[in-house]
Design brief:
The complex is a heterodimer of chains A (about 230) and B (about 130). By secondary structure, chain A is mainly α. In chain A, about 80% of the residues lie in helices and about 0% in strands. Chain B is mostly helical. Chain B has one domain. The termini of chain B are far apart. Classes of the chains: A mainly alpha (about 230), B mainly alpha (about 130). At the A-B interface, helix 5, helix 6 and helix 7 of A face helix 1 and helix 4 of B.
């Protein structure tokens, strides 16, 4: 049962995602952050789709559960595109964007096949289990890729505050979701954890991106040495 | 087994991303000088101390807030408490870590002072707009 709190989170999340697109269009060129906007537009559409499924079939219906997990997997793939866009921004001067895109697409396909093979070997072969497995693995690979991007930012001494904050908030989003899906996979009965964590992470990402777009312009910079957790 | 590894790695990465995110927020405001009015009110010039944090936060709560600042302040508040806990627990074993956490916490206080400065300036602008309307 979704209470007033649940509806508020749902509506607020969709509004915040739409607000990211508006803020991005106001404060930055569309082409530069196109993949980030694409992800946020997809999130709004998925939220609307989930609401339609929920109102037609109910929260515990098979239709809603399937729609929820499959749309989540699609959103994660869109987030991969957003991550590719960030890689392109960071590495634009090195001219290796195309190679990176090919590598990330191969990784995405590999993760999907790996998840399928893991579930295929298991006895239950439940489709819902495959979706949870693939979501967990996609979020984890996304986390690794964000971590690599973060390391590259430090190595290249990237100083653009907006890019840094977008990458770090994306890293936190991937971490929270990978951790919650892993917990869900290991302990399917801990419902209270994933009833709270994914919506909280879902709210955090648009808020952090709105902050990055509205608070800083593209040229705002900081000293890269201040970012490493260990002082240099 | 796989899920456990993913969980542990994700939590560790989350901590590191969170610390770096907070440091990026602090670094972005570290170069900003405080206005003379705010310097007089809170008694901070170029650098703040750990003890200033709670006092500045009280001023921040008194001042009508700006939506854009709210989450950054919350994140830094959480970071300040996290550093306090780490400094208390690990500080006796690693004195250098304690020094580092104290330095970070004083920068959190300066971040809060800059946020206060921004809020006051914003409210003054709003007031001036209302008076002229």
């Amino acid at each position: 049962m979704v209470g007033p709190f649940g509806y508020t989170i749902w509506l607020l999340g969709a509004l915040l995602e739409a607000a990211v697109v508006v803020c991005s269009l106001i404060r930055a060129p569309l082409r530069r952050y196109f993949t980030l906007n694409l992800y946020m537009v997809m999130s709004v559409l998925v939220s609307a789709g989930r609401y339609v499924e929920f109102s037609r079939h109910g929260l515990t219906s098979t239709e809603y559960v399937y729609f929820y997990y499959y749309s989540d997997a699609i959103l994660t793939i869109c987030l991969y595109f957003a991550l590719m866009g960030l890689y392109a921004i960071v590495f634009e001067e090195l001219g290796v964007t195309m190679r990176l895109r090919v590598f990330m697409m191969l990784l995405l396909i590999g993760t999907t096949l790996f998840s399928y093979s893991v579930v295929h070997q298991s006895e239950s072969r439940m489709l819902t289990r495959y979706v949870i497995e693939i979501s967990q693995n996609l979020y984890f690979v996304g986390l690794i890729l964000t971590y690599v991007l973060w390391a590259a930012l430090l190595k290249l001494r990237e100083s653009r505050v907006r890019v840094i904050q977008i990458v770090l908030s994306l890293g936190m989003y991937f971490s929270i979701n990978a951790a919650s899906y892993a917990l869900r996979n290991a302990y399917p009965d801990l419902r209270f954890v994933w009833a709270f964590l994914p919506p909280a992470a879902g709210m955090f990402l648009p808020v952090a991106w709105i902050y990055a777009f509205m608070r800083f312009d593209d040229e705002a910079r900081l000293a890269p040495s201040r970012l490493a957790a260990v002082p240099r | 087994m796989m899920a456990a590894i993913i969980f542990i790695f994700s939590v560790a990465a989350l901590m590191q991303f969170f610390v770096s995110y907070c440091r990026s927020l602090i670094a972005a405001s570290a170069r900003k000088a405080l206005s003379s009015d705010v310097q007089d009110v809170i008694g901070i010039r170029r650098s703040a101390s750990v003890e200033d944090f709670d006092r500045v936060m009280q001023y921040l709560h008194l001042c009508p807030d700006r939506r854009e600042d709210r989450n950054g302040i919350k994140a830094i508040g959480a970071y300040f408490r996290l550093l306090g806990a780490v400094g208390t627990i690990m500080g006796k074993l690693l004195p250098s870590l304690r020094v580092w956490t104290e330095s970070e916490r004083s920068q959190c206080a300066y971040f809060a002072a800059v946020a206060l400065d921004r809020r006051i300036a914003h409210n003054r602008d709003m007031f001036a707009e209302q008076m002229s309307a």
